[in-house]
What we know:
heterodimer; A: Alpha-Beta Plaits; three-stranded antiparallel beta sheet; 22 helices; 3 strands; about 65% helix; globular; B: alpha+beta; Immunoglobulin-like; Cytochrome Bc1 Complex, Chain D, domain 2; 2 domains; five-stranded mixed beta sheet; four-stranded mixed beta sheet; 9 strands; about 15% strand; elongated
Amino acid sequence: xxxxxxxxxxxxxxxxxxxxxxxxxxxxxxxxxxxxxxxxxxxxxxxxxxxxxxxxxxxxxxxxxxxxxxxxxxxxxxxxxxxxxxxxxxxxxxxxxxxxxxxxxxxxxxxxxxxxxxxxxxxxxxxxxxxxxxxxxxxxxxxxxxxxxxxxxxxxxxxxxxxxxxxxxxxxxxxxxxxxxxxxxxxxxxxxxxxxxxxxxxxxxxxxxxxxxxxxxxxxxxxxxxxxxxxxxxxxxxxxxxxxxxxxxxxxxxxxxxxxxxxxxxxxxxxxxxxxxxxxxxxxxxxxxxxxxxxxxxxxxxxxxxxxxxxxxxxxxxxxxxxxxxxxxxxxxxxxxxxxxxxxxxxxxxxxxxxxxxxxxxxxxxxxxxxxxxxxxxxxxxxxxxxxxxxxxxxxxxxxxxxxxxxxxxxxxxxxxxxxxxxxxxxxxxxxxxxxxxxxxxxxxxxxxxxx
Amino acid sequence: xxxxxxxxxxxxxxxxxxxxxxxxxxxxxxxxxxxxxxxxxxxxxxxxxxxxxxxxxxxxxxxxxxxxxxxxxxxxxxxxxxxxxxxxxxxxxxxxxxxxxxxxxxxxxxxxxxxxxxxxxxxxxxxxxxxxxxxxxxxxxxxxxxxxxxxxxxxxxxxxxxxxxxxxxxxxxxxxxxxxxxxxxxxxxxxxxxxxxxxxxxxxxxxxxxxxxxxxxxxxxxxxxxxxxxxxxxxxxxxxxxxxxxxxxxxxxxxxxxxxxxxxxxxxxxxxxxxxxxxxxxxxxxxxxxxxxxxxxxxxxxxxxxxxxxxxxxxxxxxxxxxxx
Lengths: 452, 325
């Protein structure tokens, strides 16, 4: 399928170039976000009736993982309210062109942190506390507030959106999975960028800001770090930026060789499986261990959680792709740099698989708990209000008859998708894709068992 | 500053003020009574003030599990308090005094500690003097052992006792029943020509004549709601909380203020004839009214009416005697 340039449509192009539609969405999102913080802090401690839990962990999560990420990649990042107050402070303006002189420290993020390891860690930190976080409104409120203030703090110290790019626990996996999305922002003609003076898309100009994501659009080959903020569309003096519709997983034909991204794939794959076991499985003692943060049982759970993600899953993967010290595999495994690159490249196959694991897992709890959304809409703080007449809607799992087929379809579809990706990645590093496909098959079978 | 910039800033500030101010304003104007398991604080607030003749409107929500709300010594249906939901309750008081409200659901190990008070003021300002309970008049030592040396070999039958009792010049009055234990009555029958087994049957009949099927049904209902969690559905002291209370022991007693130096005991087994046949109804009245000091047995004096207590006592004895249907 050829790419379709959406920005050829004057309607779409004007909507993206104008700041006002985006500003309107930003204000609504920011109001909702602040309200979610407040609801978490002052609303009912019963999670299923508190706006912060229901709208963040059920409604938002459903939209994010079932719609936004698979179809729009970093579409959520384009409207996320978390970086906005910091960014406005950093710029000293909401719409006006930036001053020549920075208002704050405007430091460059140290090179050692210019990767997604911090995002991997921040995600794992939340994941380890997730049983409490997902059910306790005041913890959710505190975490949401902490993310907002962390983003503000980083904006005053570092240039651009340091929080989004290097720390956001959500941004890391959205970036990873955005490679599969059928939408992209790319330049139209590379030569135009090469000859462009001043590179306003990166450095800013009187009509807009330099890329908040610290990306030079002229070099974009993957969606991973483009936040779809559309700033470059506004600043490009040559109208050389396009938003395209493209085939799914187009970016995966160019496998990454970065270990931080490879481990992100393992983190997401492992977390989905562990969540399926802990949150949806029948093992009460496992739930207790995950919920009772600070107890010895929780520490054991945390150690096992981290061991699965950092040792067991990548270890088995490593053993399967380099099983014996002979032939080409041996050459790869013995050559550290080549081995690492091959490991990272082959782990690209786990990206569609991980995404589908999360889709299958999320379908389960989203369809089970979606009926809480209408009730929480009418009584968001659990104070006995009935704003829209839906406060007393009884809890009722939705679409239960299609849940199992949909989950099976997602997992089997993910396996096939991964197998195709593995073939391409294996071709790049010139090894057999079979071990990767077998690995995907085994993990999919485990996930099927956990979910069904 | 450009007009568009100014407008944007105003819009953002207004949005933030709305997001923070509106819920805070409405939150402060929606006073709620929060119910939590006793370990986590019980009722909050636990003291409510009201006026005679003025309706008291309460909005109650649960912050954890399902609770129930009822006011002691008032003729009201218990209201379920559901997690995250708000229950509206309206109360009317025609007499001043301090009323006890309590949880009616077995919400947790210390469920029975979930109590609060409603202080009702107004006229008549002098509350009616409380009647002296029978156990006080009889000067009973509620904590003295009262085990009996002899127990019946089979469960005494009120039906058999009735046939035997018609020939006996015996005091079957309520005064006698309330102030004597079954064993004392058994001994008082020793001058008759009845066998031991027959004397126990007459005692069973004596106990039955001092209650009614309605009283027993009411007592059973009260027992199921308030006592069975510890004493067990069948009175054997094996309620759902019995084991947990025994395990929690003293520590469970110290979770509430002022509950120091208490020692948890296993809930009383009402099916144990050695203990129950030596218990005077007035003594059970005292234990229910006052609670079993130092044992974990709560006091029910502010919750049950006198009639309810006698109904409950009548039902408790039914674990010892075989009554006619």
